[in-house]
Amino acid sequence: MPPGQILDGKATAKAVRTDVAEGARRLQAQGTQPGLAVVLVGDDPASHVYVRNKDRAATDAGFAVQTRRLPAETSQADLLAVVRELGDDDAVHGILVQLPLPKHLDADEVVQAIPAHKDVDGLTLANVGLLAAGRPGLRPCTPAGCVELLDRYQLPIEGQHVVIVGRSMLVGKPLAQLMLARNATVTICHSRTQDLAAHCQRADIVVAAVGIPKLIQGDWLRPGAIVLDVGINRGEDGKLVGDVDFDSARERAAWITPVPGGIGPMTIAMLLANTLRSAAESSGVPLDSLGLAAR
Ligand code: NAD
Is 159 in the same domain as 244? Predict the structure, then answer.
């Protein structure tokens, strides 16, 4: 079998971002510039890189971006006040609180203070519930990016057996809901799953969202499987490595995402799409007129 083909998240994300920029241009022509606010607390170097990338991508798409950088010792009350102020600001359509927050802060309370219609990470209980109920809402960016990547490569989801490794609120659980909504058969595996390899062997599509470098081995895969590697881990050599052993997995897979350059860039692209969606909805502009699908 020839080695699996690469699902190029970088190129696909660029295509999504071009579409979003075109949608933003059309929305602005009707008087609304999409506005994204990013809140960053403390000095975590990885978080600073993520926030810089999001800021740049949103600016490139024609959005108004404000990044609030707050000191590590910011109190819960002060952080909540910033989130509420942004929640009341009509020029802000999307609010993103970069996680993780410093340990003395209650991240859940902060996230839940974001108004649901500005919750572009899709993490408030309202959006979690809307997704579970199959109703329109803002979807978490990483799982939405997984689905968008498959769609843009025209790879089928309906009727496929999707095995998701990881059950976090950020990735695994919402992805399972999105895949169910697309009529996939879904298996969710996690840290207490017995015989993970056997589950993966039954998958048409394997999604790894665990945080353990190279956990998923090539011989766990059915020949011809599709592999989405959400994991971002820092290897001993300082390089980024996914949750899938890429070289052995590529021998078996029909399609596979690399790390970096796979799901990571798709996540940022979907953040922009969510912000455009939220801006369009707040100004009453039909989503389809901006190239956005109704959900
Ligand atoms: P998490 O720590 O919240 O969840 C990890 C999940 O993996 C848990 O549900 C746990 O049950 C499961 N797990 C742990 N050990 C396991 C094992 N041995 N076998 C099977 N399952 C096991 O992590 P998360 O926030 O979902 O992130 C997962 C990975 O994805 C991390 O590497 C993170 O950096 C990465 N991530 C990437 C993006 C992106 O944009 N590409 C976004 C979010 C997270």
Answer: yes
Shortest CA distance to 281 belongs to which of 271, 294, 262?
A: 294
Q: Which pLDDT belongs to residue 295?
A: 64
Rounded average pLDDT over 104-120: 98
Query: Nearest C-alpha to atom 18 of ligand 1 is from which residue?
Result: 191
Per-residue pLDDT tens over the stretch 171-189: 999 999 999 999 999 999 9
User: How remote is the CA of residue 71 from the centroid of ligand 1, in Å?
Assistant: 28
User: Is 140 in a helix, a strand, or coil?
Assistant: coil
**Quick one: average pLDDT of 41-62?**
96
CA angle 224, 153, 7 (to 5 degrees): 65
Give yes or no: 88 in active site: no
Count of domains forming the chain: 2
Residue 258 belongs to a domain: yes
Residues 84 and 200 grouped into a single domain: no
Residue numbers of the domain that contains 210:
140-264
| Ligand 1 pocket check for 210: Cβ under 6 Å | yes
